[in-house]
């Protein structure tokens, strides 16, 4: 090692360590610059970023080439290899990397850059912008002073040629101009950033699943609403959006853009983009509403074409007014064309799955949680109770053998259908398959699997026909070979773990308070709970007989604790019979609450009970994991039968299995439950967390949707 005179070895080592630590430090900004066939202009933008007064160590630059064919990628790589000797060594090298995204679309390119970003805040600039040297410095100051989640920069127009005489203020927005105020302010609900210059915290972008490719600018579809969509989703999620005038970006107005045809064409695509955005955020598509909107757009276009434009020409108004009138006419025509396209066929390039959810009109907490979770994902869905609109099927039919729409039927056995409605629904399912739609079925089980009578047999028969028609069966079981006897169903089955409810419902009430509200004897030391509305009467009688066997044994041994059985709700297959009521009244240890079950009363039921009991007969398709997951979320033990829907699905420490339809086995399981002290482990608590588990459920469901539609994730190369 060579020691330079006048510099100590210790000081030199500290200096090297300081430089190394600064290199490893996470940058404050990740500047993402996406480009396509603009070799000269993107190099000018890179030069502006290289001249930033913000320290090199505090920001990184990620350039994403979106399939350029003019040598842009080669020019950028040559620029990256250039060394800048003017910067000080202590500030470290310029952090810059270049990615290549082959899938065309601005959203794809930006999302690829986001996957590589490491900064706290992500800044997006276009490849035809010039950036003020103090932009990043002023932007960081704005984030520190406002605590904003997203900030839009001030965008002015940089004229590459002389500004034309017909240019007025109203036309500047088309060229990217964005300057709502001369002072810093929080943006209102109807304002969006300029696409060529804005910034968002990376955590917020990750929570919102980044940009929507459906609304993105592409080669043959110059849409321009992905930033408006992002701003709308940010506000809906509770994030704050600000505007900083000191962070300046200049958007270049080239000669190719300074023609009236450019402004008219941009207005046309603006209208089409607005309808695309409306489609993305609309969850109801009634035929009457669609036609009403189409007629409204046609009326506005006709007024511009036959009234406003002729009057302007007759009055001899200047060029600017004629251009504004032509732009308004093109805007309405674009909206009209896009609505007609959606009326006839949803485009196959729709990267966001279009789903029709068919469900029972009866309240279903699982379905409500599912739709709330889908609202946060990239899914465009409608709901039917239990209708399948013919127009929706027609618009979402396959295009050139590529599937476009998904028909998702939630618990077909729960649908309350007449014979005519059943035939109608089966015909629509047949039609959906003929038109190339994909059919998904959620099979979570239900009380009708164990019920007797013609009504239940009709439910099961309809459910089997739907399962036979489906392309994919979603089921929370690890034993599809035991659950489905049809080999084709077993091949279609896809396992998704049952989500939890921990942290969603109010906490359980204190035991003494719950006892007082439910009328349970204070000396009771152990309480069994059964949700009667999830079981048929035969299963409840089976439970009462097993409990009666336990009580007789309990009375013969004074050392055993005093126990209580709490039955909540009415049997799923009808009103409670006299036999059930007499059997419940025969023993004072049975507490029957035969009123309609209300979720508002859940805290008192969970506060009073120690164990949830799931009484089932020997039917291999019987059972549902929802109530078991609910009990586990409240840290309550579960007594469940050894059936395919439960086997291997519940933690061994938290469940007691029994032989279905065996009173002796159930009685033994009830006794064993009194001897188990169950406490959730940290990993179990995390798996039952409401937000985390439902995000995982809908994330897996979204992957299944994309798999059925043949949508593979894009490949990004370094």
What are the defining features of this structure?
718 residues; alpha/beta; ten-stranded mixed β-sheet; six-stranded parallel β-sheet; 25 helices; 22 strands; 16% strand; elongated; disordered N terminus; disordered C terminus
Characterization of this structure:
With 718 residues, the chain is of the alpha/beta class. Helix content is 42%, strand content 16%. It has 25 helices and 22 strands. The strands form 3 sheets. Strands 1, 2, 3, 4, 5, 6, 7, 8, 9 and 22 form a 10-stranded mixed β-sheet that branches. Strand 16, helix 19 and strand 17 form a beta-alpha-beta unit. The chain is elongated, with a radius of gyration of 32 Å. It starts with 8 loop residues before the first helix and ends with a strand. The relative contact order is 0.07.
Explain briefly what this protein structure is.
This protein is α/β, with parallel strands linked by helices. The chain contains 25 helices and 22 strands. The strands form 3 sheets. Strands 1, 2, 3, 4, 5, 6, 7, 8, 9 and 22 form a 10-stranded mixed β-sheet that branches. Strands 11-10-12-13-14-15 form a 6-stranded parallel β-sheet, with helices on both faces.
